[in-house]
């Protein structure tokens, strides 16, 4: 009997010791990986922080960074460095756990800031964007590969500079450092359950978007320059898909960004509107615009109606962005937004969380 119980006990003890030893080894190797991760940034960006503390346990390797600053300085075609783009975060948690051994979990706590330099009328300045709200959860692969993806999510986020608020954000970033001219070096896709934009009378729902930057990878390292001013300009960005529901309308946008400085982009887009007839019939431009502009707006609406009918109930409009300003045809969008604000929200029931 003693031998009968002794052998299973020894076997169980061996299994426990093996598991504990594996957990300790995994934690040690993962902690070393996190140390190398923050100590050896990429050649494009440099990271600094006020303090670094281990925060793991037997089953997880973790590290907390306080006062994080990431500075990225791409080069220009003439060899001079461009202005530095800076990202800041109050608190970042990094961790690796054995039940997901091939990915790193990063939690961004507290407000985050992004500072973008730009020039206006010959004077240099900086634009500050601050993201606040719930912590942002990010997951990316442990292995450093030329191509990969990282997923992110946040229950709520608010962009302080623009007043944009987003509820239930989910998305992913893709990269390919070996991309050529026929492939994308960067990709971003995300979905938002509900988005509030101050300049729009009602919020957007079911927002989905996908963007990409054509290769090669050198576009990230070396920025294009404007010939006259020598200032850095935006690389080409493709809007593969952007859609949302707004006031009973189903909106879709495709197009591309093709230049512009920092916060003053330039691009051309197509806006597709479905289920638009009831909305257009409620527009009353004479209540907002001067008589001549109201008449011109009505003529434009009639043309939109006829073109929409020929398109099988789908309305397609051209949008252009010049130096950061959006135009519908030749009319600045900000001038006709008050007309749209007169339309009452479509009848629907919202579930408040």
UniProtKB/TrEMBL annotation:
Q: Check the record and name the Pfam families matching this protein.
A: DUF2125
State the species of origin: Acetobacter syzygii
Q: What is this protein called?
A: DUF2125 domain-containing protein
